[in-house]
Amino acid sequence: MKINFVKCHGSENDFILINNLDASLNLSDTELAHWAKCLCNRTYSIGADGILLLLPSTTADARMRIFNADGSEPEMCGNGIRCLARLAIQQLKKNPIQIETKTSRIQVSQENDIAQNVFSFNARLQNVSFISDDFNLISPNKQPFINKPISLLSSDLRFTAVSFGNPHIVSLVNHIDKNLLEQLGKMANINGTIFPNGANVSFFRFISPQSIYVITYERGVGITYACGTAMSAASLLSCILNLNQFGTWIHVFNEGGMVKCLPNQSNESYSVDLLGNATFVYEGTLDYANGVVKEISKTKEFYDEIAAYERMKKSFRES
């Protein structure tokens, strides 16, 4: 069986995107988890942080499923949904569109490019909560956990727990220590001792008004170039801590580039608009039979898009 795919990325958080709108690909969850482990291997296969499946939906224009490189299935992916929405908008010829995820429906629209020839999409993230069953072990009284220490992780850092359908803890730091982040990320995802379903762990640093830097240990992946919902969480926290203002676009820099986030507050409700790239790297096919991927080949490379994104990143480094 020949299967077409697109290698793509949002802020260099990269994915293998498979169009299954016609529901012709019928794989069990076990097979999909196996696929993710095999195809995301950067040594022996395509290499990616996860695989994205574009599927039909009965409640929205399309549905997204994502499997991390370790085979786990997260609830949501902010960078992934932009990439998937790009393909969905092309296929369905509709803009904006509604994407169904495991926990909500999200509106995604194609917008003006954030840099020349950098295709850009905005995901409106409204399923934001500071109270979640994922945080019961650190907040058993089900109160918002904002800017407090988690003794089992660190006696020095303060964290805020926020859910975008997937669980995040975020800490404001003066200095980014990647080794410490990796250590805390692993601790937060061991055996449900702190978080029953694990959590994404992020550090963010305030650069200047409307500008922050974020790095994330992503559950099921490890430290990534970027995590869309983590950047949204950090931008929201920067407003709660009065470093930035609600209703103002924030430039969120990361290892893989930059996105823009617009945190909003209405009474006790919060939302974040996440605007960033959805870059196609290449199209390809894979030959799959009897549970084995036999051959992988590239059919089209998007050189202009790759170059445009690299120019954007270079401009950030030079500024």
UniProtKB/TrEMBL annotation:
This is diaminopimelate epimerase. It comes from the Eukaryota. Pathway: Amino-acid biosynthesis; L-lysine biosynthesis via DAP pathway; DL-2,6-diaminopimelate from LL-2,6-diaminopimelate: step 1/1. It catalyses: (2S,6S)-2,6-diaminopimelate = meso-2,6-diaminopimelate. Signal peptide: none annotated. GO terms for biological process: lysine biosynthetic process via diaminopimelate. InterPro entries: DAP_epimerase_AS, DAP_epimerase_DapF. Its EC number is 5.1.1.7. The keyword Isomerase applies. One of its GO terms (molecular function) is diaminopimelate epimerase activity. NCBIfam families: DapF. Coiled coil: none annotated. It holds the Pfam family DAP_epimerase. One of its GO terms (cellular component) is cytosol. Belongs to the diaminopimelate epimerase family. Keywords: Amino-acid biosynthesis, Isomerase, Lysine biosynthesis.
